[in-house]
Every structure is written in C-alpha cells, then in structure tokens.
Design a protein that fits this description.
five-stranded mixed β-barrel, globular, 2 domains, 180 residues, OB fold (Dihydrolipoamide Acetyltransferase, E2P), alpha+beta
C-alpha cells in the first residue's frame, strides 16, 4: 500500500539512531504519526517543525505510518526570528494534537493552520492568530456552540485575517484552558 500525502510537520521526535517520529497534519488523513528513517533516498537532516512536505507512506506498523519518500516543499524560515510566533504555534499544535482525532481528515482546519503560519511569518499578531485558530478548532470539534460572545461570532465568520478583531486576552486564556 502506497499513499501519497501533502502536509506540514508539527513535531519531530528523535527515534533510535537514524530515524525520527513525525507528527504530521496532512490534507488526506488529518493528524498522523509517522516514522522516517534516514537513507540516501530520504535524507532527514532538513526535517524540522513547520516545514510543508510531500511524501509517500509505504506501510503502517502499529500506530505509525512508515514514510518511504519525503520532500520538503516550503520552509517558513522567517519564523525562526519570531520567538513569540513559535511559542504560539507550539501552543496550537498541542491543542490540535489533544482535540483533533488522529487520522480524521480536517481539510479546512489544515488550510487555516497553513494560512496562520504564513501570516505569522509575515508579522501578524500571534495572540490574535492563536485566538482565531482556537475558536475555529472549538467550533470544528463542536465544543463551542454559543456564539453570544461578540468576538467569537466575528472570528467564526471572518473570511480574512483583516476581518478578525483584536482578541480579548481572557478569551485566549479561557480557550487554552479548554484545550489543555
């Protein structure tokens, strides 16, 4: 069984001598855990969080897919200079990993995640982006159904980042507590 995938690396964990376990957010399967072993065909020295990738799963062993091929297609190098953006991205990765069911496709959430990463690289406010993602994640998971809070209603209906209002700090704290 070979399955071609497109996704973004969320987390990298060293495994044994020449392998790594990746938490990937893919368009085809949603969140997946996969093992990539370094070889001539698949060098892994460039593998790091928040790199957009394309690859091929070879097979599945237990909880992990085995990656046969892996190529980086886009690096968000500007994020390296923005510690607050990286902290926020790590926070939403944690929230996503806890609330989104593994191997359950969420293409709109995936697209939103990529747009937020792009916006953060360009200098958008990390707190606003985090609040927006957490609201959309809560709506996606059915946790948040009351749109009585004005900011939540505006964020839920926003079609672009410029339409997202300034986020109240207490809302970010409340949503983070909801997911953690």
């Amino acid at each position: 069984m070979s399955l071609i995938f497109n996704g973004i690396i969320l987390r990298v964990t060293p495994y044994k001598e020449r392998a790594e376990i990746l938490l990937l957010f893919t368009t085809e399967l949603g969140l997946v855990s996969a093992i990539v072993r370094e070889s001539k065909k698949t060098p892994t020295r460039w593998v790091e969080p928040f790199v957009v990738v394309r690859g091929k799963f070879k097979e599945r062993k237990g909880n992990f897919f085995q990656i046969e091929e892996l190529d980086g297609t886009h690096w968000y190098l500007g994020l390296r200079e923005k510690p607050s953006a990286l902290r926020m991205l790590n926070s939403i990765v944690k929230s996503t990993a806890k609330k989104v069911e593994m191997e359950s496709p969420a293409p709109l959430l995936y697209k939103l995640f990529l747009k937020i990463v792009e916006a953060l690289e360009k200098g958008s406010d990390p707190e606003t982006m985090e609040g927006l993602f957490l609201v959309k994640l809560a709506l996606h998971e059915g946790i948040l159904s009351d749109l009585g809070e004005p900011w939540i209603a505006q964020a839920a209906q926003a079609r672009s980042f410029s339409e997202v209002p300034i986020i109240p700090k207490n809302l970010v704290f409340a949503l983070n507590r909801l997911f953690c």
